[in-house]
């Protein structure tokens, strides 16, 4: 694996760790401090800006890997149909290895880009959830601390509490959906590793080759 794909893999691993940290069942106070720091820290803002630039290069790598995958797939199909007269087992195995590496690079860069979008959306959903919880706790405290006054004020407070409850339930439902997505992503990654291991066992003579 070349250096830029190695860096992409490291970025993907960092994204997976960050995603697990975001959706981890942390106590409310710790989660609030963490997300407040991430959303307000100028250092984090600079790091995020640098990551945006790096994702542009990852997108270019994804386009290049996708183009190579289509080209190698076409060459493999032509070899199977016999249009090129390929009968050497070593040549066929080399084509199969190139096809595998091109697919690996496409999945690696594509999943890195996809997970970056998931991370961004998850961060803002959880941040909205924290703000909603703060508003709900503040309004509930004000409602319980005030003496029973006019019926209009009580009705308005009840409507606000009900509205915040609905919003809080919606945000929690979105968070659960992203946890389900994380489980599916982990299953797909495990399946990819299994297929890669199976392929390396089947083509042991070329398993140590590097991609271009």
UniProtKB/TrEMBL annotation:
UniProt main location, coarse: endoplasmic reticulum
Span of domain Bap31/Bap29 cytoplasmic coiled-coil: 159-205
Tagged with keyword Transmembrane: yes
Region feature Disordered, mapped onto this chain: 141-163
TM helices/strands, residue ranges: 7-28, 48-66, 107-127
GO terms under biological process: endoplasmic reticulum to Golgi vesicle-mediated transport; intracellular protein transport; protein localization to endoplasmic reticulum exit site
Domain of life: Eukaryota
Record's bilayer topology term: Multi-pass membrane protein
Subcellular localization(s) per the UniProt record: Endoplasmic reticulum membrane
Keywords: Coiled coil, Endoplasmic reticulum, ER-Golgi transport, Membrane, Protein transport, Transmembrane, Transmembrane helix, Transport
A GO CC term assigned to this protein in UniProt: endoplasmic reticulum membrane
Biased composition (Polar residues): 146-155
Every BAP29/BAP31 transmembrane domain range: 1-138
Function: May play a role in anterograde transport of membrane proteins from the endoplasmic reticulum to the Golgi.
Family: Belongs to the BCAP29/BCAP31 family.
Name this polypeptide is given: Endoplasmic reticulum transmembrane protein
Source organism of this protein record: Hypsizygus marmoreus
Lineage: Eukaryota, Fungi, Dikarya, Basidiomycota, Agaricomycotina
